[in-house]
Each structure stands twice: as structure tokens, then as C-alpha cells.
């Protein structure tokens, strides 16, 4: 097996763990909050999901840099000019920053979740685009991403309104 | 490029990214109310070793190969600022990183023995600064690689 194949496998595993982890993190959160409080078991399940997310992120970033090295060493630097690739860098940067901001409680949980889920799915889609013939500009790709984040926020708000009971004061 | 130079470049990038990842973990762990100091110390120690490893392998690549073979290509290419601005900034910031990381490890050692909220906040900010510098250096590396197209 050559290095390129190993990188592709590591990258796909990273994205799969991230997309699955982000989806299940939200599903678990909604399930856990349905009865109004999060039990220790539910908390443990969510923590394990976050661990999977972190592992996925780590694999994604490490294999991503592996690809960049591969392009550099094989003289294929022109691939670094792909707008989809740069949009993916930005999305991964936003994903990383949102994780920090969520931990610092500087952004609302629902916005953090919307950014996390959308970013992971965007990383998946952009990964496919970066290897294909899609020539959309950086601004177009990023505008669609921003719109997707806002849409995801309202979808999550609807889901939370439907399934999570509101505390009465 | 010879095999040792190729390995040096690979080590520079991957070990550096690992060190940034470990510093990210240090910062995130610092946000907890009751961090595990032993775990933090271990993470910061490995991050320092990683930064030193990336530093040494990057220095070897830079001194032996970059100046002679890559820098002239960038300066003649469409993006000479990739060397003139980005690389110059990168190499100067990178000089500080292993020492900042070593200071982080040492301060965690201090916090482990004597807990103080003000010091804890300052050390957390140091971890964030290292993380941001590391992210800049990683991004700068991508830009420099892209500009080395002949």
C-alpha cells in the first residue's frame, strides 16, 4: 500500500468519525435533555461521543497536512491553489475556533452545535469537491457554508423546541 | 531532494502539527474547573519535545536545502512575498515557540504544587498564544509550499 492510499484511508476515517460524532453528539444531547435533566450515564455517553469527535478531528488535520506534504514532495503544488481546499481550511479553522468558544461559553450551545455539524458535513463535501472538477470560487463556497450554518441553527432550534421541555420559572 | 531532507521536511510538518494538537488539548483542558495537572504536564512536555523536534528538522531543511533550492524559486515566482514576509515572520516566531512551550510546561509544574487562579489564567493565555502562533506557522507553511511552484 502506498502513502497516498494510507493518507486517503486516514482522512476518510477522520471525516467519518467527525460527521458521525457531530451527528450523534446532537442526537444524544436532545435525547438526554428530553426529561429535563442530563443523567450521569447520559453525560458519560456524550463525553465518549466528544472523544470520538476529537479523534476524528485529529485524524482529519494530521492526514490533511500529510496530503499537503505529499503534493509538495510530488511537485503537485498547483493542487494547493484549489478554492475548495482553501474553503476547507477555513471551515476546519472555524470548527476548531467554535470548539474553543463553546468551551469558554462565549457562544450559545445551539450556534456551536450548528457550526459543528455543518462544518463536519462541509469538510466531507469539500473533500470530494477538492478532488473533482468543481471550480466554484472561494466566496461562493463560503457563502453557501454560511447559509448552511444559519439553516442548521433554525433546524436545531425546531428540533429542540419539539423534543426538549422548557423549564418553567 | 535527498532522502534525509525529505524525512526532515515530513518530520518538521507532522511533528509540528502533533505539537500544536497537544497544545490545543492543554488549552482545552485548562478551561476545566479542576484540571488534572499530571495529565496537563505530560501533554505540555510532549508538546515541547514535538516543537523542539519540528524546530530541529525544519532548521536542517532550511539551512541545507530551502535557501539554495526553494527560496530562489519563490522569489522569481508570482508570490515573492511568501518568502519576504511570510517565511521571515514564520522563522522568527518559530524561534520562540519551543521556549514558550517549555515555559508552559514549567508553569504547569508550578501550578501543580501551588494553585493560584491568577497564574492559572495567565498560563491558560500562554497556551492560547502558543496555539495561535502554531496555527499561524502551520498556515504559513502551506502558503510557502504553494508559492514554491516553478
From TrEMBL, chain A:
<feature type="transmembrane region" description="Helical">
    <location>
        <begin position="6"/>
        <end position="31"/>
    </location>
</feature>
<keyword id="KW-0812">Transmembrane</keyword>
<feature type="transmembrane region" description="Helical">
    <location>
        <begin position="109"/>
        <end position="130"/>
    </location>
</feature>
<protein>
    <recommendedName>
        <fullName>DUF2269 family protein</fullName>
    </recommendedName>
</protein>
<feature type="transmembrane region" description="Helical">
    <location>
        <begin position="79"/>
        <end position="102"/>
    </location>
</feature>
<feature type="transmembrane region" description="Helical">
    <location>
        <begin position="136"/>
        <end position="156"/>
    </location>
</feature>
<feature type="transmembrane region" description="Helical">
    <location>
        <begin position="52"/>
        <end position="73"/>
    </location>
</feature>
<keyword id="KW-0472">Membrane</keyword>
<keyword id="KW-1133">Transmembrane helix</keyword>
Automatic annotation (TrEMBL), chain B:
<feature type="transmembrane region" description="Helical">
    <location>
        <begin position="43"/>
        <end position="63"/>
    </location>
</feature>
<keyword id="KW-0472">Membrane</keyword>
<keyword id="KW-1133">Transmembrane helix</keyword>
<feature type="transmembrane region" description="Helical">
    <location>
        <begin position="93"/>
        <end position="111"/>
    </location>
</feature>
<feature type="transmembrane region" description="Helical">
    <location>
        <begin position="6"/>
        <end position="31"/>
    </location>
</feature>
<feature type="transmembrane region" description="Helical">
    <location>
        <begin position="123"/>
        <end position="148"/>
    </location>
</feature>
<protein>
    <recommendedName>
        <fullName>DUF2269 domain-containing protein</fullName>
    </recommendedName>
</protein>
<keyword id="KW-0812">Transmembrane</keyword>
Amino acid at each position: 500500500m502506498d502513502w497516498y492510499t494510507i493518507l486517503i484511508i486516514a482522512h476518510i476515517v477522520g471525516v467519518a468519525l467527525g460527521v458521525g460524532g457531530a451527528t450523534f453528539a446532537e442526537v444524544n444531547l436532545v435525547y438526554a435533555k428530553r426529561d429535563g435533566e442530563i443523567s450521569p450515564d447520559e453525560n458519560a455517553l456524550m463525553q465518549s461521543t466528544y472523544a470520538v469527535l476529537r479523534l476524528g478531528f485529529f485524524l482529519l488535520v494530521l492526514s490533511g497536512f500529510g496530503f499537503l506534504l505529499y503534493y509538495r514532495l510530488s511537485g503537485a503544488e498547483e493542487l494547493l491553489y484549489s478554492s475548495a481546499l482553501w474553503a476547507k481550511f477555513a471551515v476546519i479553522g472555524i470548527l476548531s475556533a467554535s470548539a474553543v468558544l463553546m468551551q469558554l461559553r462565549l457562544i450559545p450551545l445551539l450556534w456551536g452545535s450548528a457550526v459543528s455539524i455543518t462544518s463536519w458535513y462541509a469538510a466531507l463535501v469539500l473533500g470530494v469537491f477538492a478532488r473533482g472538477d468543481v471550480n466554484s470560487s472561494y466566496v461562493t463556497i463560503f457563502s453557501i457554508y454560511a447559509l448552511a450554518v444559519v439553516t442548521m441553527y433554525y433546524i436545531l432550534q425546531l428540533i429542540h423546541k419539539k423534543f426538549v421541555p422548557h423549564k418553567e420559572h | 531532494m535527498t532522502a534525509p531532507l525529505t524525512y526532515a521536511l515530513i518530520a518538521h510538518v507532522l511533528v509540528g502539527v502533533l505539537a500544536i494538537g497537544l497544545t490545543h488539548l492543554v488549552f482545552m483542558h485548562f478551561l476545566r474547573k479542576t484540571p488534572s495537572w499530571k495529565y496537563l504536564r505530560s501533554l505540555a512536555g510532549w508538546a515541547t519535545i514535538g516543537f523542539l523536534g519540528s524546530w530541529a528538522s525544519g532548521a536542517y531543511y532550511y539551512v541545507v536545502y530551502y535557501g539554495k533550492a526553494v527560496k530562489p524559486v519563490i522569489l522569481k515566482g508570482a508570490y515573492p512575498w511568501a518568502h519576504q514576509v511570510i517565511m521571515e515572520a514564520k522563522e522568527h516566531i518559530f524561534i520562540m515557540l519551543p521556549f514558550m512551550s517549555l515555559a508552559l510546561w514549567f508553569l504547569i509544574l508550578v501550578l501543580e504544587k501551588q494553585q493560584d487562579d491568577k497564574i492559572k489564567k495567565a498560563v491558560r493565555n500562554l497556551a492560547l498564544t502558543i496555539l495561535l502562533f502554531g496555527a499561524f506557522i502551520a498556515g504559513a507553511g502551506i502558503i510557502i509550499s504553494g508559492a514554491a511552484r516553478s
